[in-house]
Automatic annotation (TrEMBL):
Keywords carried by this UniProt record: ATP-binding, Kinase, Nucleotide-binding, Transferase
An annotated GO BP: thiamine metabolic process
Record organism: Laodelphax striatellus (Small brown planthopper)
Record GO terms (molecular function): ATP binding; kinase activity; thiamine binding; thiamine diphosphokinase activity
Record flagged with keyword ATP-binding: yes
Protein name: Thiamin pyrophosphokinase thiamin-binding domain-containing protein
Amino acid sequence: MICNASDFACYEWNPLDPVAEDRLHIGKEYAIMILNRPIKVPQLLMIDLWNNAKLRITVDRGTQRWLTFCEKLKSDRGLDVTLNPDIVSGDLDSVDPTSLEHVKSLGCEIRETIDQNNTDFRKAIGVIMDRNIELNSVLVVAEHSGRLDHIISNLNVHFTTDALLSDSNIQMYHLAGDSLTWLLKPGHHVIRIPKRLRDRSAWCSLLPVGSACNVTSSGLKYNMENSRLEMGGLVSSSNTYDSEKESVELLVDQKIIWSMGLGFNDD
């Protein structure tokens, strides 16, 4: 949400529901996307996110990841449910043909995207935009694990799609098993932090993977005063919160990645 400011844009973020803090607060009109990584989001949260999405898309072998999740749901909780995607997209070079035929037989749309100059993730954003439906956000589900080139490539998509999504007032979030990540634009950001995360000193970070960024902060344990964050220099990793402050406030002069632990899997 953008608030009024005379010199720069001001953004307010409430990443977790202020009442039910084990639920995300990403808007009611959202699309959900599954990439090709094992799904480690808590099962009941994942079902809730899937069922309430306006559009559901699995990307290439992410289709099998989703079907595997559904099978595990059945064995772990005895829930025999059909949770089919609306769309499968990608160049379809890694999805199992049997899985593809299965979801196709259930009415899922198959969108083959051949262009090798963009990743399947980036092309899937285009597929969503082609639907021309009203959305607040896109929630991408993928673990930050495995191949480093895939991790960096996924972060890069936050930058390469920013203008496209911003034109439609859509925010993209990246959900892993126990973290939420998104792109901050230049400006003043206020991020509301639930008390349970502040009390347990949950981690957070600012990652200058796009370009050097000057940051001034309050509400963090290790605050910055017009500090220059850049690869090859200072990176604000493994930071946490000032337990007395309800919000983190950031003033940033370039696009930068914010990532935070959600505390779902804490012992």
